[in-house]
Write a structure and sequence with these properties.
- The structure is a single chain.
- Among the domains are: about 15-25 and about 60-175, 7 Propeller (Methylamine Dehydrogenase, Chain H), CATH 2.130.10; about 270-360, PDZ domain (Pdz3 Domain), CATH 2.30.42.
- Helices cover about 20% and strands about 20% of the residues.
- The chain is built from 10 helices and 24 strands.
- It has helices at about 50-55, 185-200, 215-220, 230-240, 360-380, 395-405, 430-435, 470-480, 545, 550-565, and strands spanning about 15, 80, 90-95, 100-105, 115-125, 130-135, 140, 145-150, 155-160, 270-275, 280-285, 310-315, 315-320, 335-340, 350-355, 385-390, 415, 440, 450, 460-465, 490, 500, 515-520, 535-540.
- Strand 14 (about 335-340) and strand 15 form a beta hairpin.
- Helix 2 (about 185-200) runs parallel beside helix 4 and helix 5 packs parallel to helix 10 (about 550-565).
- The longest helix is centred in the N-terminal third of the chain and has 19 residues, at about 185-200.
- It starts with 12 loop residues before the first strand and ends in a 17-residue tail after the last helix.
Length: about 575
């Protein structure tokens, strides 16, 4: 996770493979502006042979299966030269036609929302790179290096030549018109074998956890003949993966399945009750209108909709039980919708508001849960403890930690809640930030002294865990405990720390993972996988507690943090008396 939002800078290098060949970047008289070398130039006779005869000619970079490439390992580190290309976030370098190659450049982190790439072409004859095409998502070069296929983030495709940058629209493909006949049963048999081979070639344990992998194929492959739908095949593939008894073995993509029509149901971000023969707003989920990533349809300023109000009609249709409230919002997601509202269950005195229902209000409800937990921790601790929930150990968790941890650095301690953590990366960044000790103070003439580090919570830390935290959510409490940051409160985590870094997809873009990254501890023993991380203090949130709005795990975590504060009070060192440099 420490790689999140770090500026990535790479440079492009050229390696001269043969010790008998000169660098194609050796200086040449042709490098002098306005100067060329030819047979009538007297200075050409004085130039060293390696420069006059080779350096002014572009080397030939090609895929030539008929020739033999000589690679001299001895001294090769001295035959690696940097091209004069400014450092950037480069990747996906591929050979082009003779004397050229391509590479991509990703946008800066500051360019939020832009996921497109710029494709560069470098020509060794003039030692310059130029933009070949911008705004792409992926590209491929044909085997003969004469053609280049690129796709855009919005799924448009073009095939162009590799000699010159294309003009807008060049080589555009009408993929909607492309059709092919597929024999599903033959393709399903191939996909089944592909996914079985993926496990065989990429699984971290070549012994396949004790399985005879060929026997596994022989056992399940006859069932392919009974597959009647791509979903049946997916079930069969997943069953084969289950033989490994390992976490992170799951299907990727649906594969080639028929399209179906979906009709969204608009949501207002509210809970309802039935009172006086009408639907009444029990709770509004607002989540803060300042948040650009959350839309709360009923909380916009000026709507005058409050908890306790009744919804009387939707788009002019009268609404009352037993009619299903949600059926009135079918097809309204993202569309202007009128609702009649009143503080009483009557039309008299009501008013109409226009809103845009959302297709999904899960994020609104999650944010409300976070805010409720933060207020609870603040109340139970008398304002002494911060609360930080980490949804995952990827980008979302990184953002959540930085937003909530550093915004509450006036607190004396912190409850780190990683329940329901969906994993992603190893949270070394979070553990490192929590583990930074207070190292001193800097005093200014006026105001409070500044701590060093300047930002952080240096008091007790307690982590909440449960059975729905896994992968990176297993690793985080493991390293939290290893760093001796504080107690773990809750229930044992999921127990899946054999991760996956990615494998090839099947022919229809479906497939299965092959976990290829297994964790073992400092003593050389496999750890966490199929075990999880056990709490120091086990507390279960019962269904009855949850239904009544109680969180026993948070209550216990706060109690433990307050015990630690009592045993080790957080008191900043006093500012020393002024120094008298005259008498000392």
């Amino acid at each position: 996770m420490s790689s999140q939002e770090r500026l990535v800078r790479r440079s492009v290098y050229l390696a001269v493979l043969s010790a008998k060949e000169p660098s194609p970047l050796l200086p040449s008289l042709v490098d002098e502006p306005g100067r060329t070398l030819d047979a009538h130039d007297s200075t050409s006779e004085k130039a060293p042979p390696s420069i006059a005869s080779k350096a002014h000619r572009a080397p030939v970079l090609r895929l030539d299966t008929a020739s033999t490439t000589s690679v001299d390992i001895d001294g090769i580190q001295q035959r690696i030269v940097a091209l004069r290309i400014p450092a950037g976030d480069y990747g996906d370098l591929k050979a082009g036609s003779a004397g050229t190659f391509f590479f991509t450049e990703a946008p800066l982190p500051s360019e939020q929302g832009d996921q497109s790439l710029r494709l560069w072409q470098y020509r060794i004859d003039d030692r310059k790179s130029r933009t070949f095409v911008s705004g792409i998502a992926t590209y491929m070069v044909s085997a003969d290096t004469k053609k280049l296929l690129f796709g855009t983030p919005d799924n448009h495709w073009n095939i162009v030549g590799t000699d010159e940058p294309p003009k807008e629209g060049d080589g555009a493909l009408n993929v909607d018109a492309m059709e092919t006949l597929v024999d599903p049963r033959a393709e399903w048999a191939e996909i089944f074998r592909e996914t079985w081979r993926t496990q065989r070639e990429f699984f971290y344990d070549a012994k396949m956890h004790g399985n005879d992998w060929q026997s596994i194929y022989d056992k399940y492959s006859p069932l392919v003949r009974s597959v009647q739908h791509r979903a049946d095949l997916a079930y069969l593939i997943a069953t084969v993966g289950g033989e490994l008894t390992v976490g992170h073995s799951y299907l990727e993509g649906e594969g080639d399945v028929p399209d179906t029509t979906h009709t969204s149901v608009g949501l207002l971000g509210a809970d309802y009750s039935v009172d006086n023969g009408r639907y009444r707003i029990k709770r509004l989920y607002t989540a803060g209108n300042w948040n650009p990533h959350l839309q709360a349809p009923l909380s916009a300023p000026g709507l005058k909709v409050a908890e306790g109000d009744y919804i009387l009609d939707v788009n002019g249709r009268s609404l009352s039980p037993p009619a299903n409230l949600y059926s009135f919002f079918q097809g309204t997601a993202g569309k202007l919708t009128t609702i009649r509202v009143n503080s009483a269950p009557t039309v008299q005195g009501s008013w109409i508001v226009t809103v845009k229902p959302v297709a999904d209000d899960e994020a609104l409800r999650t944010q409300a849960w976070i805010d409720d937990n933060r207020r609870l921790v603040d109340k139970l601790s008398g304002g002494r403890l911060a609360y930080v929930w980490l949804p995952n150990t990827a980008g979302g968790g990184y953002t959540a930690f930085n937003r909530y941890f550093y915004a509450q650095q006036d607190k004396q301690g912190v409850i780190i809640d990683e329940r329901y953590n969906q994993g992603g990366e190893v949270a070394d960044y979070i553990v490192g930030q929590l583990n930074r000790p207070l190292a001193g103070y800097f005093a200014e003439r006026a105001g409070k002294s500044i701590t060093m580090p300047m930002a952080g919570i240096f008091g007790p830390k307690v982590m909440l865990i449960n059975e729905s935290a896994g992968s990176g959510g297993d690793a985080l409490p493991y390293y939290f405990r290893l760093a001796k940051l504080g107690p773990l409160v809750g229930t044992r985590t999921w127990g899946g720390l054999v991760g996956t870094l990615g494998v090839p997809a099947a022919i229809d873009n479906g497939g299965i993972t092959a976990p290829d990254l297994a964790f073992y501890d400092l003593n050389g023993k496999w750890a966490v996988e199929n075990e999880g991380v056990a709490p120091d203090i086990e507390v279960e949130n019962t269904a009855a507690d949850v239904m009544h709005g109680r969180d026993a795990q948070i209550e216990r975590a706060v109690a433990e943090a307050l015990k630690l504060l009592q045993a080790h009070p957080i008191a900043p060192a006093p500012r020393p008396a002024p120094i008298n440099r005259v008498t000392q």
